[in-house]
Amino acid sequence: MKAMKLAVPMFAAALAYGPSQGLAVPILGADLASFAVLGATTVTNVPTSTITGNVGVSPGTSITGFNSVAGIATADPQVTGGLIQTNTALAASAQAQLTTARGTLTSLGAGITLGANLAGLTLTPGIYTVPAGTTNLSGTLTLNGLGNANALWVFQFPSTLITSPNSVVNVINTGTGSGLFWNVGSSATIDTTTSFQGNILALTSISLNTAATIGCGRALADTGAVTLQQNTISIGCAGTGEEGSGGLGGRGIDVVGGVARPVPEPGTLVLFGFGLAGLLVSRKKLLPVA
């Protein structure tokens, strides 16, 4: 009986303080996740770009270089898997979700502070802060998921994100639930022929120079413009958790206490329960029962 009295509060504590399925939140809302490109003031494009996903602006009404009609979702041959959303209800909703997403990322904290230039590094999943510099990437950055299909990288840029021409972000050894986010405190510039990956969420503006690509991700500007020059951006990439908010991002995370963790598996509490059952049996054998 004493053992039972001990086991009950321990199991209750596990439920109260153990990993919680209900605390998992998506970083990108469903409307925001449908956009490959989203600006607040303008979106400017020098054709021909190749975009997979919606292209939009809100509350601004100016999109150039694409077919555009204010308030009406419009098709464009440069865009597949989406439409041009010029201050539509969907674009407005996505902008609101972008502000929320940036707040969620910021709440995860600074993590590990790196040098300004990420070139030559191999980084495992985690949260990293990168200070401003003349360039933040002048070569190849390798992100190694170590075989974790739910690998998550968050890069906090308090100021700018700038790459040099021909730079590369290479993501390896991960899977369908992976997430890669670049949370930029001001503006981002992805220079010519850079091969980039992941979701750029910038407070102000984003510029992709000639032939820069985001192989799997998004360019999302909260208060400013997005400028494109013959770029390729895709949210429809295979094997990256596209379920509702993929593109190397948008999966659920547990943000309790400001700590980012993969969503726990349902079996966690079951295993804990078996452990308590074992404790109960042991106590019955070792202790007298009242």
Tell me what you see in this structure.
The protein is of the alpha/beta class and 290 residues long. It has four helices and 24 strands. The chain has one domain. Helix 1 runs antiparallel to helix 4. The chain is globular and about 45 Å long. The N and C termini lie close together (6 Å). The C terminus is likely disordered.
Structure at a glance:
With 290 residues, the chain is an alpha/beta fold. It is 20% helix and 35% strand. The chain has one domain.
Helices and strands in order:
Blueprint: H1 2-17, E1 24-26, H2 30-33, E2 35-39, E3 42-46, E4 50-52, E5 54-57, E6 62-64, E7 79-80, E8 84-86, H3 89-107, E9 112-113, E10 122-123, E11 126-129, E12 140-148, E13 152-157, E14 161-162, E15 168-174, E16 179-184, E17 188-190, E18 195-202, E19 206-208, E20 213-221, E21 226-229, E22 232-234, E23 252-254, E24 261-262, H4 267-286
Parallel strand pairs: 2-5, 2-20, 3-6, 3-21, 4-7, 4-22, 5-8, 9-11, 10-12, 11-13, 12-15, 13-16, 14-17, 16-18, 17-19, 18-20, 19-21, 20-22
Antiparallel strand pairs: 1-23, 23-24
Helix pairs in contact: 1-4
